[in-house]
Amino acid sequence: MRMRLMLLGGGSALGQALIRLGAEEDINFLAPRPPDSGWDAANLTQLLDDTRPDALINLAYYFDWFQAETVSEARFASQERAVERLAELCKHHEIRLIQPSSYRVFDGARATAYSEKEEPVPLGLHGQALWRLEQSVRAVCSRHVLLRFGWLLDSSPEGLMGRFLARAGRDDTLYLADDRRGNPTPVDDAARVILAVLKQLDCQAPLWGTYHYGGHEATTSLALGQALLSEARSFRSNLVDDIAAQAHAARPDAAEEPQHAVLACKKILHTYGIKPRAWRAGLPSLLDQYYRHV
Questions:
Q1: Would you call 78 exposed, middle or buried from its count of C-beta atoms within 10 A (0-12, 13-18, 19+)?
Q2: Using CB atoms within 10 A as the burial measure, which of 92, 150, 173, 227 is most buried?
Q3: What would the pLDDT profile of 82-111 be if each residue is shown by its tens digit?
Q4: 186: which strand partners?
Q5: Domains and CATH numbers, the chain
Q6: What are phi and psi of 110, to 5 degrees?
């Protein structure tokens, strides 16, 4: 690859998957360690003034954006300021910016799949913060690719899947919504998509804009939980026997989590040639990674 690539958040689950996948193709990333205080507007300015990469993948706050159960408003506000500054720096230094986002920018009222043309109406604090991040990137840096992912699954113990598996080994009964739908997306698959986008940009293809990606075969959170349990029993025998169905409206996170979160992925297929992969095929390696670290 001719472009010099910088990866913020190389220590995150998605960052590690991207580094691992890139190494298989001799694609290397400059992945600076974050300062003890975390990335902010000042140290990002210094970093990019010194390094000036050709493209930057911003996973600096990956866990908060995609895996954390709750994030404070003040923390999101600090991240928004940093991303706005990052977009300004990318514009100034003519750096291509890859910025991840999420299905959470939609309110989930639409029963059919969301395309990139749909107007975001985020429900809660999480979705609103991501939507503001998107808007600042669009307004400031024209050479950007915004990637909205479906339900991202990684092997971190405190992440979405990790919390579910911890409950499965502790609780007598689990409840998940049987009327909440989305696209499960293993983190290795998300890394594959980012790498495919970078390869196209390396060919000077000016394919800027917003794109959706989620694993093939939309499903319910109940069916996803059942699939995870089935696979996890290869590693642990003391897991809860079954999961009870519960209505989305009765779930404690119903005010924050979109009920219908299926993403239409035609644009990224037609523009970048990226085909959705079946999320079920990614579960064995995902569970293997998880149980090797808990």
A1: middle
A2: 150
A3: 999 999 999 999 999 999 999 999 999 999
A4: 153
A5: 5-293 (3.40.50.720)
A6: -90, 120
